[in-house]
Please model this.
Amino acid sequence: MNISLLNLFKILFFLIITFSTVILCSVNSYAKGPSPYLPLQMEPLIELELQRLATVAKLPLLTKPYHAATVNRYLKTIVDSHPTLYRRINSYLKRYKKTAALTHASIQFNYANQENIVLPNQRGQMADANYQASFSSFWQANQYVIINAGAIYYENGDYLRNNSFISFGADVFQVDIGYREHWLSPFQESSVLLSTQAKPPLSVTISNPNLLTDFNIKYEMSIGLLDEQKDIKFDKDKPPVSGEPALLTMHLSAQPFDWWTIGFNRTFVFAGGEDSVSLGDIWNAIIDPVSSDNCDGVGGGSELEDCSQEFGNQQASISNKFDLNWFDVPFSLYYEYAGEDTNNFSNYKLANLANSFGLFLPYLGDSLSVNMEFTTFQSAWYTHHIYGEGYSNDGVKMGHWWGSMKDPKDGVGGEAGSIRLDWQNSGDSQISFLYRTANFNQSSIADYQQSHELEMKYHKAIDSNFLSLKLYLGRSSFGDNFVQTGISYTW
Model:
C-alpha cells in the first residue's frame, strides 16, 4: 500500500477542511490566533515547573507540548496560592509574548564508553555523540500565522529539524505543518503510544489551544510521513519492499470534574507498500479496525480473510490524570490502559495490553519533588508482521523507551519503571536523580538481563542562563556496562 507525499497532503487538506468547517462555524470575530509551544524534553528545569503547574492548577491536558496560551490562562489561577511558581513560569513566558524570539539555545559536550546506547526520549540520539547544539525560535508574522524554526545538530552529522513548522488558524483550530513533536500521554518520563524517543516525522497537526466547553475538551489529530523502511510485507507470497509508511494520530480528552481528566488516543501506521491508499480505506480502518487489520484467514471472527489486504498497525489507549490534595499536599495520579491489538475480534476490546501507573508529588516541603512511573507490557509491542522494522522511525521505536532496549524484531513482553527526585537546594541551583529499570520475559531471540540506569544532573543558574553537569551510567538489557558524562550551557 503506497502513499506519496502528494497523496498525504491531499488527505490532510481534506481533514483540515472538514474540521475547520465544523469548528470555525462556531468561532466569532473575536477569536484569537494560534499559540507557540512550550519546550518538550529540551529544558528540564522549566518543564518541571510546568508539571508542577499541571498538578496544582489541575491543568486538563494529557498531551504535550503545551500551548503557551493555555498555560498562561491557568497560570493566573495560582498567583496567590503559589507565588514562587507563578513568578518563575511567568518570567519564562515573557519570551513567548514577543513578536519574535529565540526561546531556546544550548550547546552540550559528552563522553561515553559505549556506542550502542539509545538515550531515552532524546529523538534517537546515541550516548556516544561527543557534542550537540540545539535551538528553537519563532516569529509571529501576523495574528494568525507563526513561523517556528528549530533544530538539533549532533556530532555524527545528524541534523534534526524538530520544532521547525508553520502554525496558522485560530485559538480553537490551530494547524501546524512541519516537524512538530507529539507526546500522547500525561506521564513525564514515558509515553507508550508516542513520545520523543524517535525523531519527529514531517506532519500536519490540528489542535485547539483554547479548550472547548465547560468540560475543557481538547482534540488533536496529525498525519505524517515516516522515513523509508525496509522489509515491508503486506503479502507473504511476494518479496518485501521498501517504502515510507504514514503515521496517523488521534487524541480527544475532557475534564468531567476539576480533579479528573480522561483522554482517548490512537496511533495508526499504514501504507508504504505497492498498492494505493484512499480516504475511504483510511476511514474504514478508523471505524472498523478488526475488518481492516485483524486477518484470521479462516473465516473466523474477522470479516478479513485475505491477509494481503491488511491495512496497517493500530494502537490505542485510555489516559487518566487525577489531580488531588491530601492534607494540603497536592499530587497527581496517572493511569493509562493501552492495547496493541483487539481482543477476540472486537472493535471495543483491547489486547496485548500495556498498563501504566504514575504518581507525581510536586512539593514535598518547599524543595523536593518526586515522580514515579511503572508500566507492564504484554506481547507484540513495537513489532509487527507487516513492518519488519516495527513501530519505528529511522530505526528507533516511537513509544516508550523500553521498546528500544530489546531486539527490534522481538515481541517479548516485560516491564519498566522509573523514579525521579528533584531537589532545589537554593534559589539558583537544582539537583536531579533519575533511576530507570527495565525487565523482559523469557525470549527465544535474546538472553536479556534486567537493566539499571542512573542519571544525575546538577543545574546552576548564571544570570538568566543555566550551566548543567550530567552523569549517566548503568547496565543495559544486553549486559553492557556504560557511562556518559556531559556538560551543557543553555541560554
